[in-house]
User: What shape does this take?
Amino acid sequence: MKKLLVTGGAGILGRALAERGIKGWHLRSLALSHPPDYPAQVERNDGDICDPDALRRAVAGCDAVLHLACRYADAIGFEETLDVNYRATLDLMEASVQAGVSHVVFASSNHVQGFHPRRNAPLSEGDALRPDGWYAVSKIWGEAVMALYADARGMTTTSLRIGSSCAKVMDERQFHMWLGFDDFVELVRIAIERPGPGHVALNAVGDCEGAFFDNSRAKALGYAPRQNPRAHLADPAVPDTAPAPDIFGRSLGGAFARANFRADLDIWEKGGAA
Assistant: This one.
């Protein structure tokens, strides 16, 4: 059985993957610590992703890596992202090369295009990058690292630009970019089993009404979303809620755009064509 290392395996998405599993794959989770009720079928590896030795031990014997671990917040500063989002990502890629790992999946984010006005939707992966904060900038850098290692080292790398992946659709913005946990796991499977080498970025979202992001590239690789946002609403009124009148509701980035926006809203929107 092939082995998949999941960094940040004790987080929300790592836990969702651990609970569901991937057929034909043994899962190994790397996290600072794992809760007592963590799924027993998953191999636990407690360690700091910022420790290169811990990374080498964790990746040894693995066939693929899913890199979920990161520092994030809507108003996070550049310096706060350096150790985990930059240095540890690079250390992980070097450890993966040394261990003979063929596939790496990088958890990127919708926020790499978060400062697009809503009127530009739906966006494809080829549309302009417009990061809505330093977290998003680190994800753009991570995607570039994935592309470099695909070309320079002959690896198969995939950047999943994850929308809003959570158990329930909590607000109107999420309704247009939601990704159910089952569909997330399926996208991971597609990424770690796709032929290579090479890098591809995929919009990791379900089939959403009024979609902010086009998922046709993922569908071309076999992705068939099964979870409909309308069937997972936290409140039936969510789809009919009006967008907020400020940058939160007029951009794709929501709270991240709001936390980092310091310009004139009308001028930004008039000049915000894709």
Summary: The beta strands are 2-7, 25-31, 43-46, 64-67, 103-109, 156-162, 198-204. Residues 2-270 form a domain with the Rossmann fold fold (CATH 3.40.50.720).
